[in-house]
Amino acid sequence: MNKIVTLNEFIIQTQKSLPYATGELSGLLRDIGLASKIISREVNKAGLVDIIGQAGEENASGESVQKLDVMADNMLISCLKNSGECCGIASEENTTYVPIDTKISKNAKYIVLFDPLDGSSNIDVNVSIGTIFAIYRRKTRGGSCSLEDFLQSGAEQVAAGYVVYGSSTMLVYTTGQKGVNGFTLDPSIGEFCLSHPNIRINEVGKTFSVNLGNYRQFGDDVKAFVDYCMTSAFTFRYIGSMVADVHRTLIKGGIFFYPATQKAPKGKLRLLYECNPMAFLIEQAGGKASDGTNRILDLEATELHQRVPVFLGSTDLVEKLEAIVAEHKTAKTKVES
Ligand code: AHM
Ligand code: MG
Questions:
Q1: Which of 165, 196, 227 represents a domain boundary (last residue)?
Q2: 7-16, 142-151, 309-318: which is most confident
């Protein structure tokens, strides 16, 4: 039997190989691993909602039943509070950031941003959903954290990852060193075990993933790219859960995109909670992530819930999309001048 490497062992081994590491980042990753095991357990019970009660009701034991996304949010916050390595969090579920002002946490050097349960509209139909997280060093020095600690560009991420609650639960993360590694939860021992070491994305992809129902709402450049994918007889896959769609893109190659639409002129997905962490992972695996023109990781963060168009995946397809966007821009400028 091959030696099993658990997530916690892997984190410790990685920390030992970095002479300047103090263990705080490792502690944070372990906290997130713990929270996601508990979220996974609750997600797996979601189908039992008729038996254990609807959100807002009391369950058989007289406890109030929380909506899964609220439960996931609370679970992450409480696990991150425990170890004192994080001075504040910001979450897609909350309108603003939450400082952790306890004695042990308020001078901690990291902040964490997350989308606790992405794709939650898919819960009712038993389709994969996920958690996405990003870790940054704070900018301010000690004391209560502030907004500027959270409004950093994606290039400054120290670590990022996601957990996909699918046919099995997997946690995939990167620290920008030692690649992108994936761990599958073995429910019988309650441990994430290294199953996908050093994930590399195919440079050339043949699968595209986008909500095609929005086709008429896309700009002409994105329509032209979709037409290119169709005439190239690419495979089309769209789950409608970013974590699951990006996970497939990472493992099998291809491109996932959520462009601007008439209804969502800046795109639907959020820069800080969804696009930056996924862009960091994709780049670390050898792929590319763009808003059509600029690298996602270089975009300036101006507000916590900022939305951006996003195109990420195999380098050849993202570059093809960028080339089509640039051609359309040039043609438009010529017509206007
Ligand atoms: P959410 O954060 O409200 O769950 O929305 C994000 C989700 C992503 O997981 C997914 O890529 C996208 O919304 C799907 O949107 P659409 O239904 O418009 O295709
Ligand atoms: Mg989301």
A1: 196
A2: 309-318
The domain total for the chain is 2
Residue 243: which residues within 8 A CB-CB, separation 6 or more? 118, 119, 128, 129, 130, 131, 132, 162, 163, 164
pLDDT cut 90: percent of the chain above it: 74
CA–CA dist 259, 218 (Å, integer): 7
* Structural domain includes residue 178: yes
Mind listing the pLDDT tens digit for each residue in 191-221?
999 999 999 999 999 999 999 999 999 999 9
Q: How far is CA 35 from CA 72, 132, 171, 252, 314, in A?
A: 8, 12, 11, 28, 31
- 118 Cβ below 6 A of ligand 1: yes
For residue 3, how far is the Cα from the chain centroid?
Answer: 29
Would 119 be classed as within a structural domain?
Answer: yes
- In this structure, are residues 291 and 306 in contact, taking their beta carbons and an 8 Å threshold? no
Q: Hey, which of 43, 91, 118, 312 would you mutate to test ligand 1's pocket, going by the most ligand atoms within 8 Å of its Cβ?
A: 118
Last residue of a domain, one of 149, 164, 196: 196
Residue-wise pLDDT for 242-278, tens only, equals 999 999 999 999 999 999 999 999 999 999 999 999 9
Q: Could you give the CA distance from residue 222 to residue 218 in angstroms, rounded to a whole number?
A: 6
Closest by CA position to 235, among listed 213, 254, 258: 254
Alpha helices in 132-257 (DSSP H): 147-150, 220-231, 242-252
pLDDT tens string 79-118: 999 878 999 999 998 999 999 998 888 889 999 999 999 9
CA 290/CA 286 separation, integer angstroms: 14
Pocket flag, ligand 1, residue 202 (CB < 6 Å): no
Strands lying side by side in the sheet with 110-118: 98-99, 86-91, 110-118, 129-137, 157-165, 169-174, 180-186, 191-196
* Gap from CA of 304 to ligand 2 centroid (Å): 13
